[in-house]
Amino acid sequence: MNHTTNNISFMQHNIGKQKQNIVGMIHDWADALPDILFIQEPAFYQIGTQPSLVEKDGIPVYGTPSYPEYHTFIPSSADIDNPPRVATLVRSTIPKHAISLDPLRSPNRDTLTLVLQINEDEHIHLTNMYCPHGVHMNVILEPLQEHFQPIDEPWLLAGDFNSHSPTWSPFVPHEGHAVRAELLEEFLADRGFVLFSEPGVPTRKP
């Protein structure tokens, strides 16, 4: 990775809790792996056991799969009863000490914000979001109101918002999604976010 914000590559994908989807992506992009992978609905299961003086078979340890090509980060509040719905993968070529969790902008299992140190004086904030079906957008955005305010550093936000707008889903029926999309667009525009993709070009594969 070239340590300038202009040369960070990234990809966003909902993998539907299937580990093999990431394995396939890493294989397909072997020659040009993105620096950042914003994953929604990551796989989360028992990855090992912790020794115990009480439990003969040990205490189950749950987590997301690890990949040698990436450092993997999930919300600290996630557990087996409330598994993470986002995971952010950062290329292992980037030193782990250059990446930190922003707890104020990571309020629940659906939102994760990392701060990546580019150089001594430059940082970039990386927010990964998942907006579940059946939850009003105001309820989703409420925990973000206080700390999602404009900052003087680059801030990249990606996610699966389950909100179809003509701006990014021109060929998808918008019935039932219009209000969600409008609330999301208004929330982001008020905070200075701009759409990275070309308006009117679909961001969701059929």
Written overview of the protein:
By secondary structure, the protein is an alpha+beta fold. It is 14% helix and 28% strand. The chain has three helices and ten strands. The strands form three sheets. It has a four-stranded mixed β-sheet with strand order 1-2-6-5, with no helix packed on it. α2 links the parallel β9 and β10. The radius of gyration is 18 Å and the shape is globular. The two termini are 32 Å apart. 26% of the residues are buried.
Number of strands: 10
Strand content: 25-35%
Radius of gyration: 18 Å
The secondary-structure class comes to alpha+beta
H/E series? EHEEEEEEEEHEH
Helix content: 10-25%
Major sheet description: 4 strands, mixed
Keywords summarizing the entry:
206 residues; alpha+beta; 4-stranded mixed sheet; 3 helices
Task: Compile the SSE list and pairings.
Blueprint: E1 10-14, H1 19-28, E2 36-40, E3 45-50, E4 59-63, E5 70-73, E6 86-91, E7 99-101, E8 111-119, E9 122-130, H2 137-141, E10 155-160, H3 178-190
Short synopsis of the structure:
With 206 residues, this protein is α+β, with helices and mostly antiparallel strands. The protein is built from three helices and ten strands; from the N terminus they run E-H-E-E-E-E-E-E-E-E-H-E-H.
